[in-house]
Design goal:
Blueprint (H helix, E strand, L loop, with lengths): L10 H13 L6 H9 L3 H19 L10 H14 L4 H10 L7 H14 L10 E12 L2 E8 L5 E6 L5 H13 L2 E8 L3 H10 L4 E4 L1 H34 L4 H38 L7
Parallel strand pairs: 1-4, 4-5
Antiparallel strand pairs: 1-2, 2-3
Length: about 300
């Protein structure tokens, strides 16, 4: 069933949904039945239930205890502000202090998020063998590599781990762990990182490795810029050689400067030809692939 935003659900209908949830709590299959009856997701169903419970608790609580919400109510806000709001931990602490919510120290919030993160597995597990195509790379946190592997079609994170290095044996263990969790890789796209490529080929010998287009095009554009600088440098050398030839007086010096100019002229022609050829090819690529640009 495909779920869409139900702007047509008026307040009374939402109240009826919450009443149905509370009436049938603990009955197997009832939540799915209610969700299907109203054509809403189970996630939205539980959001309505949680919101109703929260507001009723505020309504029937002693007013003097409403200033500070209980710790269990702050935990979802910590996660929402951090993950959805992209707020820094000091920013969350400042907001909590503004509203006099406790605990509100940076140390507590940091420890809470770390504890929450430790409860989440760093690798997905499958009930049965699943054939996948990997997208793998390293990201860095304070200079320490974090190895990440995604599934190409869904972009789901299959495994993410903080590693001591990004050598071939480390990457090999990374991919072997994925194999133990019933992922079978038919291939992988990545940059040309030596450890990454070697580790994948050691762990998945029947998989096919391909270089991702982003890094390939990036390298081509960098190479084109380098060839452009080389061409301008060769033009400058040819110009200098021509000036030396013009100022030569003796026959012997004229012949020497002429040979020098001919060599620099030939080198200049080759440098300009190499740059022109690559620049034209990249221009064709930009026309064929709209996502490809010099930047």
């Amino acid at each position: 069933m495909k779920f869409t935003r139900r702007h047509d659900l008026d307040p009374q209908t939402r109240i009826d949904i919450v009443k149905a949830v509370w009436t049938h709590q603990g009955i197997y299959g009832k939540m799915s039945e209610i969700a299907q009856a109203y054509r809403i997701s189970r996630t939205f169903l539980y959001q309505l239930s949680w919101a109703a419970k929260h507001h009723l608790e505020e309504l029937f609580s002693d007013p003097q205890h409403l200033i500070e919400p209980p710790e269990w109510l702050l935990e979802p806000w910590i996660l929402m502000l951090r993950l959805e709001g992209k707020c820094s931990i000091p920013s969350i602490a400042s907001m909590f202090k503004h509203f006099d919510y406790h605990p509100n120290s940076v140390g507590y919030l940091s420890q809470y998020l770390q504890d929450y993160g430790r409860c989440i597995p760093s690798i997905l597990s499958m009930a049965e063998k699943k054939v996948v195509f990997y997208l793998s790379d390293e990201i860095f946190a304070i200079g320490v590599p974090i190895l990440v592997t995604l599934e190409a079609q869904s972009t789901a994170i299959l495994k993410i781990e903080l590693a001591a290095d990004r050598s071939a044996p480390t990457w090999q263990r990374h991919f072997e762990e994925l194999g133990k969790h019933l992922f079978h890789s038919i291939g992988m796209a990545s940059d040309r990182g030596t450890g990454l490529v070697a580790g994948y080929q050691a762990a998945c010998q029947d998989g096919r490795w391909v270089c991702d287009q982003f890094h390939e095009f990036q390298a081509l554009f960098h190479r084109c810029q380098q060839l452009e600088r080389n061409a301008y440098g060769a033009i400058a050398k040819e110009h200098d050689a021509a000036n030396l030839f013009d100022h030569a007086k003796s026959e012997a010096n004229l012949q020497k400067r002429l040979e020098q100019y001919q060599r620099t002229h030939q080198a200049c022609e080759q440098a300009m030809a190499r740059y022109d050829q690559l620049a034209i090819l990249l221009q064709w690529l930009r026309e064929i692939l709209p996502l490809c640009s010099p930047s």
